[in-house]
Design goal:
Distance between the termini: 51 Å
Helix content: 55-70%
Largest sheet: 2 strands, antiparallel
Strand order of the largest sheet: 1-2
Structural class: mainly alpha
Shape: elongated
Strand content: under 5%
Number of strands: 2
Radius of gyration: 20 Å
Number of helices: 3
Length: about 90
């Protein structure tokens, strides 16, 4: 069974949705500033739409980025290691 697109019922293209969410997340912009930037570029989107897309697609985009980073680490043979762990339980160092 093929995985269906999360953008299926949206009229706006997935590229625009990605751009909007990445603008909001990547740069310290408010919802209204993202709306203004897009309006200057000819994309008419309200700040509430930006908020909705961020809540709906933000976690999906974050998981995609995380997968890409992990796969990049595996190809370079990058490994995690622990160095000098100190744990205190009831004020006693173990």
């Amino acid at each position: 069974m093929s995985k269906r697109s999360p953008f299926k019922y949206f009229k706006t293209s997935p590229e625009i949705v990605r751009l909007v969410v990445m603008l909001y997340v990547r740069f310290p912009l408010s919802l209204r500033k993202v709306e203004d930037l897009l309006h200057e570029r000819g994309v008419d989107v309200s700040h509430e739409t930006v908020r909705y897309w961020w809540h709906r697609f933000g976690p999906m985009f974050a998981s995609e980025i995380k997968k890409r980073r992990i796969s990049g680490m595996k190809s370079s043979h990058w490994r995690w290691h622990l160095d000098e762990i100190f744990v205190k339980i009831n004020g006693e160092r173990l």
